[in-house]
Here is the input.
Amino acid sequence: MLNLPQEITINNANVVLKTISELVDSSDVNEITLSLSVIAYCDSAGIAVLLEAKKYAASVQKQLYFSCPNQQLQDLANFLKVSELLFID
Here is the structure.
């Protein structure tokens, strides 16, 4: 079970990336879906973490998907034009 923080910001970005990377490494499946429903706030560093986590997963031949972003996270990803890269419906 992965416990994400309520916020992903520049202040905890490296820790969150490490946590997600460890989940990817320890997973026995090649496709991982991670719910972002607990995330109440995310800044652009948080978006970078999510993109980097997907990149890392791909580098170890796994697929990482994110679901259930809140409206703020969805709006930020849309603004940065990365929503389609990050989220599944």
Remarks:
- The radius of gyration is 12 Å.
- The chain has one domain: 7-86.
- Helices lie at 13-26, 44-59, 71-79, 83-86.
- The chain has a mean pLDDT of 95.
